[in-house]
Structures are given as structure tokens and as C-alpha cells.
Amino acid sequence: MKKQRGVQVVGWLAVLILLVGLQPLSNAVNYRRLVLGMKSPTPLTKMVDFDPTAVTGVIMGAALGGFQGVAASMLWMKMEELWDSGKGTWLECLNVMRTVTLLDPHWLEPWRITGWHLAYNLYVETKDPKLQAIYLAKGLDALKEGISWNPNTHELYLELAWTYFDRVRDYENATKWFRAALQFPHPEFVERMIAHAYERLPDLDRALDWYDYCLKRNPDDGTAKGATATIRLRYLPAWRLMQAGKYDEAIRAIDRYLEVEPNGTIALHVKAHIYEQAGREREALDVWRLAARLSALDHQARRKANELAAKLGVTLLPSEQAPSYYLEQMQEPRRLEVPQRRLR
Amino acid sequence: MDLSIEVEEGTIFGLVGPNGSGKTTTLKLLLGLIYPTAGSGTVFDLPLGSPEYKRRIGFLPEGPYFYDHLNAVELLAFYGGLFGMSGAALQDRIEELLHMVGMWDRREIRVRNYSRGMLQRIGLAQALINDPDLVFLDEPTAGLDPPAQMEMRRLMVDLRRQGKTVFLCSHLLKDMEPICDSVAILARGVVRRQGRIRDLLGAESGRFRLRVAGGNGFSLDSLRDRSLDLKIEGEEITMLFANQQQALAAAQEIADNGGTILELGAQTRSLEDVFIEAVAAGGDE
Amino acid sequence: MQAIYRVAVATFHEAWRRRFLNAILVFAVLIIGSSWTLTYLQPGAELKLLIDIGLGSIRFFGMLIAVFLGVRLISDEIEKRTIHTILTKPVTRAQFLLGKFFGSLATVLSNMALMGIAFYVVFAYKGSKFMVQGAAQGSESASPGISTDFIYGNIAKAIGLSFVEMTVLTAVSVMASTLFSWIMAAIFSFFVYFVGQAADFFKSLANPARGTGFGGQIVFNAIYGIIPHFEVFDMREAIIKGTYVGWDTLGMHVGLGLVYAILIMLVAFLAFMNREV
Q1: Do residue A248 and residue A316 come from a single domain?
Q2: Lowest mean pLDDT, pick from A43-52, A58-67, A175-184, B84-93
Q3: pLDDT range class, residue A52, cuts 50, 70, 90
Q4: Which three-class secondary structure state does DSSP give residue A127?
Q5: Min CA distance, A215 vs chain C (Å)?
Q6: Is residue A3 located within the same domain as residue A137?
Q7: Chain B residue with Cα closest to C3
Q8: If you measure CA to CA, which chain A residue comes closest to B37?
Q9: Whether residue A289 sits in one domain with residue A231
Q10: Could you tell me the residue ranges of all domains in chain B?
Q11: Is A22 on the interface with C (CB under 8 A)?
Q12: Within this chain, do residues A26 and A150 fall inside the same structural domain, yes or no?
């Protein structure tokens, strides 16, 4: 019948118009959800090599409908039971943790714990440097993978930056990831951590800038006050001389302080840095080697020593060698960009 | 396909046809359940399927099935509600109908516990809830036991008495014959024969039929010569005579020889005969 | 209106008498109630588990009810031919379809509302305990891993959004019911729901940055454009992260859900109009 056919034509036209008109509304809702933090975007590009099971996790999660969170929570509790009872080995715990991150990738806690567990517990557990290198790299990767699922909140940036700062003593990466956390609402201590990291890098101007910022925000910030005073008193004279190109005077200035405290890590770093700026690499290498011998945990000094020694063809003592994970990492440098806040 | 059916108001009309003849399709078209692929139809000058049209019709489907969690009163209230009926008017109408179809005493029973006959009764009641002018009944007697069939036929005649037009659809010709005023015979989507039932059956053929049993001493050959046709089935002999005199004479003769007259009368055709004839006539189409 | 209302009421009453629906409801309330026995395990974990069980149950069982109720709605009427006695009354097909839809929607939402009440009671009692316990431990946020900001409001809003979500799903299953037999319709509805849960994932699959070919981009973008984005009605992340969700945002979500429902019901009507009954 003609009338019927007319209704069909008009009806399907209306369907088409609604479907097209719906897209802006749908986009607006999705945009709002991202802006408000009601959801995190599904990672678009690979920040790190994804565990291929991540895809399975997404599909499984969808198939479970509302119960994906329950499954993740139950597994997480199981993991804690394994952990607390001591019945499960740490590797078993790790497997369960990873499964939880796949099932509920927008739950931050499992990512945080997984990264920490790998970089700290499993790292310490083994004495094999190769394994240590693997655990540390995997710990960092887990945090990065977590960030790619949850890029719009500070927690995992902070965790990653702290791991670089405290575990790896890689202050360049530490400052980079601490600063990434600044994009989002964050606790007050993040700025102070950035200053600490710059101080150790060393980049005293930036360190002072950040301490300054902390003091302006809170004039009673004791840590910032103390750190500023220390820097000005101990290292800044040498630093300023270095910047003026008066390298010999700068070395003398920092040496005066080193007489007071011969194994001052920051002072040694500053001294090595002055030599590097002056282009006196062999002397810089000696300072880094000294710092490495003085502190087994001064991984930065060990790495720098390693880099310079390789360049200059000097053989290092075993106690001056860079930690094995550095050697592993240096073979395959990872280029990582700080993801900018993505809204779409 | 052209289909034209004439139904006189206030009569019982039967649409008969073998399975697959297009009965159901015709009925669905008339009810507005399906739309014609081309053209349109009207009844009471109202387009088929229009709400105004639906207000004036009632329908009892074949082997009806209803929301079975309801009881008779609730079910009728639901259907009444679809017509916008409510309150005391609806309650009165429900009571009247339940009395009419003999379900008043059983009004509290849920539909899921109904027998076939009860379903048919409540089905008729729901078809009449809006006091329609035209009632469509699809195979109303199918699957019923003989008393229930009789009751159903009585109800249909009652409807005609109330001035309603009843449109029957059935393949049970024996049930249709006694109550229909007119019929249309449908085969392969074409109306083969249509008209008042009396005209179709052609009551006066002039021939007489005699059926007897038992007796001996009369001449079977003589009878065979005199009759148009003679059949023997066991004890029974059935004969066909050209006129009443011959039939009476033969009956007398047999009775005198100790036989029993089982049947003697004018030969009539049944609807079934007409139906078979009509369907066969168009069979080579 | 009268006809729609009558059909809806009849559908609602009939649906509530379905045993499997009652069974699902009882089961869901039992599961939600079972979280009452949840004891202190680890700060944060039990609070999250409580929320996940409650909201998860409402959404999961809501989904089962919406699909299994919806998919039989029209096909059953046609199969049992109850539709004949209704459509020959002054009821248009559109009225019939809407009546059936609203009737089943009322059933779905009332079932979910009962689950929601059960959950809210459990949460109001247990949730506060877990939050206090977390605070007593002196951790900086009451429960690590889960924020307690706006938690009561967010949970109520999450339940509200799950209502909208199931409205859309009911429409999908009713539409499927006008097209397919009920088993086919159920498979179709679940498929649409699960794909819709991962709509964003399909969007990201379509991104050329992932190395997707041109054909793949077209297919994935088409899926993303057509499939209802059921995932937008998920508020779990906002609850966990303690995000404040304003009424305007909530209104946009509801609006989107309604447009989806209208669109789907329109398709259902267009399919049903031509359907032989």
C-alpha cells in the first residue's frame, strides 16, 4: 500500500538523521567523561610493548559485563591472601597481579603494586644481575603500561618517577615523570621531589627554582628552606663560577667544601659536572669513579663513569662498574615520550 | 488477484475451502492483520485495519490463545480496556457475556487451566466485548466435542437473531451447512461458487432415495431394472428412483416381503457434494 | 494512549509472573545481600569489592532480565497468536509495540530498583564501616586504591545510569524480537551489548596509528558509529577515583540514552510494521 511505503521511507530517513545527529551528542558525552575523569581513554598507541593478553582482557571484561570489577577484586583479594599467608611465592603473586591489571586496567592500585613488587621485592630477591635487570625493566614497563591506560591521573606518574628517583637513581627520567604528574591534581610534595631530583642531577638553577616555588606556596616549608640554604652555601658559589666559565676557580670552590665533607654525593656530582662543562672528560671520569667507589648506591655516578670510560677507553674497577641493568638498558635505548593529556 | 465476496447484513456467512485455499489470508486481509500488496479494501465504507473499522468488528481466532495468567473477568476487562471501556459499563458487559457463553460460574478460573471448549467460549466472549456489527469466527467448532459444537452453533444463531453479521471460516462443511445463510467456496485463492446455501444445494432434483434392510422374496433384478442406481452394502440396499411413485412402489414391495424401510425421501445434495464439485471443476486451472 | 497503557499494564503483570525473572531477582538480591558478610580484609579492597558486587549485580542481572524479557515480547505474541485478538481491537501496531516496550521496561526497572535498594541498604551499613576502618589506620586517603569522595552520590548516580543503560538494552531486545525468533534475538542482543561495552576499543582499533588498514578503519568506525555505546553508562571509574559528576553531565548521559532508545524503537517499529503476524 502506498501509505505504508511512505511511512517506511520517512521512517528510515528519520533513523538515518537520528543516527547522524546522535554522533555529536555521543562525542560530547565521551569528551565530558574524559575531561571529568569518569573514564580513561583506551590506549591508542603503544607506549610499551603490550602484553598481547591485554586485548583478551578487554574482551573478557566486556563479556563479564558488570562483573569484570568483581572478578578483578576477587583475584586481588586472592593475591593478598597468597601474599600475607606466605603460601604463595612472589612470582605467583606477580602472575595474579598481572591478571588483575588486565581484567580491570583502570584500577590503579594493582598497577602500582605490580610495579613496586617487580622493581623492589623481586629485584632484591635475586642475586643474578641479569634477572635484576629484567625485573627492574619489567617493573618500569608495568607502570608505563598502567599510565597508558590511566594517563589522566597523577598516581602512576608519581609511582614511576619515584621508582626512577629512588630505585634507579636516574634523575633525568625522575624529573621528567614527576613533571608529568604535575598536569593533574597532585599532592604538594611532587614539586619538592622535582627540586630534589634536579639537585641530584645536578641542575642547581632548576632545583633552586622549584624550591623557590615551594617556598612561595608555603613559606613554612622547612625542607625547601633547608635545601635552599644548603645549596646556596655549599654548591652555588662553584656553580656560578662554572657558569661564568671560570672552571678552575669553580673546582677550587667545590673542593673547599669537599674538604669538609669528602664523600658528599651532591658535591662530587657538581664537581664532575664542572669538569664535563670544561671539557675535561678524563678528570670528570675520575670524579665519577670516586663517587662510585664511595657509594654503592650512586648509580648515576656509576653510569656516568661507564659512559665516559667507554668513550675514553679506560677500564673500570669492578666496584666502579655501572649496575648490570644499566648495561642491559643501554644496549636497547627506550625512547619514551611523556603522553600529553589526551581527550579524544 | 481479485476477490469479491458479498455478505448480507444480519446473516451467517461461511467462507469454506480446503487447506491452502487462501481462507486464512483472506481473513487476515479482512481483519487488517496483513496489508494487500496492491490496492485496498473497505468494509462498511471504512478502510480495512482502520481504528474506526476495528471498533465495529469482533474476531475469534482459530484455536485461540490468551494471556493465561488472567481469569475470565480480567481477560475480558483487558480487551474491553482496549476499546476504552471501563467502570460499571464494562463490568455489566462482562457479566452479560459470561452468562451468554456459559462461563459465569467459572469466571475465577485462570485461562491456563481452561479446556478447549472453555477457551472457545471465552474467545467468543472477547470477540463480542465491543458489541460488534460484524463478527469473524475462524474454525469456531474445530476440536470441540459434539455438545460443545452444538452449543457453539446455537450461540452463532443467537448472534444472527441479535442482528449481527457472522463471518464464518471453516473446512468443517457439516457444521456449516445447518447454520449458514450463504457461503463462498474458495479454492486456490479464487471464489469458485458463492450464493445462498439453498440455491447452491439445489434442493429439488426430483429424484427419490430409498434405503432398506432385510427381507427376502422380492426380485433384486427387477428392482435394479426399475431404479436409476442400486447399491448393496451388507444387509443394506440403497436405491435411487426417478420419481416418488416408483420409490413408493418399491418400498411397498420390500415392506411386504419382510424388509425394513430405513429411509425414503427426496434426494438432496450436501454442501460437501457442492464443494467437491466446485473444487474439482476448477482443478485444471 | 489508553491502548498503550493497557498493553503495557498487561505486559507488566504477565512479566512479573514469569518464574525465571523472579528467580533472577531473588538470586541477585541474595548475591548483593551476601556482601553483608564481607569482613575486613585489606584497606580499600573490601570497599571496592562491595561496590563491584552491588553495581555489577544490578547491571549483570538487569541485563539478563532486559534481554530475556525483551526478546520474547513480540515473537511470543506472534507464535501464540495472542497478537491477533489484540491487533483486531482498536490498537495500532505502533501502540502495541510501545505498550509492550513500556510494559517490559517497567518490569526491568522495577526489578533493578529492588536490587538497587538492596544494594544501597547493604552499602549504607557496610560501606561506612569499611571507610571508618580505613581512616582508623591513618592512611592518607581512607582507603588506598579507592577514593571516598562523593561516594554515596556517585553510587546513586551509577544506579541511575544503569537504568538508562538497560532502557537502551530493552529497546535493542524488543527490536530484535520483531525481527528474529527469540533465541536468535537473544544472541543478537547480547552481541550488541558486549560490542557496545567495548565501543571505545573499536574506535581505537580504527586508529591508523595502530597500523589499521583502510578497510579496517571503515569497518571499525562503522561499528563505532552504529553500535550503542553502552560503556558510557558505566560510572565505576568515577566512583573509584572519587570524581564529582554534575547533574548536567548526568543529563547528557540520560539524553544520549533516550536518543538511542528512540532510534532503536523506531527501527523496531519499521520492521514490525511490515512483519506478517
Answers
A1: yes
A2: A43-52
A3: low
A4: coil
A5: 23
A6: no
A7: B82
A8: A1
A9: yes
A10: 12-201, 208-266
A11: yes
A12: no
Contact C210 A44 (CB under 8 A): yes
CB contact under 8 A, C269 and A11: yes
Residue A159 and residue A31 share a domain: no
Report chain B residues whose CB lies below 8 A from the CB of C276: 34
Predicted pLDDT at C172? 96
- The answer on A274 and A236 residing in a single domain is yes
- Say if A231 falls within a structural domain: yes
CB contact under 8 A, C6 and B83: no
Q: Which of A128, A68, A140 is nearest to A102 (CA)?
A: A68
**Closest to C90 (Cβ–Cβ): which among B59, B82, B126?**
B82
B51 touches chain C (CB under 8 A): yes
Here the CATH number for the domain that contains residue A293 is 1.25.40.10
Given the C-alpha cell 469466527, which residue does it identify? Answer: B137
CB contact under 8 A, B33 and C91: no
* Fold adopted by B12-201: Rossmann fold (3.40.50)
- Give how far A81 is from chain B: nearest CA, Å: 51
Instruction: Tell whether the model's pLDDT for residue A244 goes beyond 50.
Output: yes
pLDDT beyond 90 at C147? no
Instruction: State the residue for C-alpha cell 636497547.
Output: A332
Residue of C nearest to B81 (CA): C6
Mean pLDDT over residues C92-115, rounded? 94
> What CA–CA distance (Å, rounded) separates A323 from A329?
10
* A340 part of a folded domain: no
CB contact under 8 Å between A19 and C60, yes or no, is no
Residue A233 lies in a domain: yes
The answer as to CATH 3.30.300 being correct for domain B208-266 is: no
State whether A206 and A287 are in the same domain.
Answer: yes
Q: Which residues of C touch A45 (CB under 8 A)?
A: 207, 209-210
- The number of distinct structural domains making up chain A is 2
pLDDT at position C169: 96
| DSSP-assigned beta bridge partners for residue A259 | none
State ipTM: 0.85
Tell me if B168 sits within 8 A of B137, measured CB to CB. yes
- Whether the Cβ atoms of residue B67 and residue C83 lie closer than 8 Å to each other: no
Structural domain boundaries, residue A16 = 1-39
Give chain A's mean pLDDT: 82
How far B81 CA sits from the closest chain C CA (Å)?
A: 7
Question: How many beta-carbon pairs below 8 A join chains A and B?
Answer: 5
> What is the arithmetic mean of pLDDT over C232-250?
86
Are residue A75 and residue A197 in the same domain, yes or no? yes
H/E segment holding residue C256: helix C247-274
For every one of its 285 residues, what pLDDT tens digit does chain B have, with 9 covering 90 and above?
567 777 888 889 988 887 777 788 888 888 888 877 766 777 777 888 788 888 889 999 888 888 888 899 999 999 999 998 888 999 999 999 999 888 899 988 998 898 888 898 899 999 999 999 999 998 888 878 888 888 888 888 989 998 899 998 888 777 777 888 888 888 877 788 788 877 777 655 667 888 888 777 777 788 888 888 888 888 888 888 888 888 888 888 888 888 888 888 877 777 777 777 777 766 544
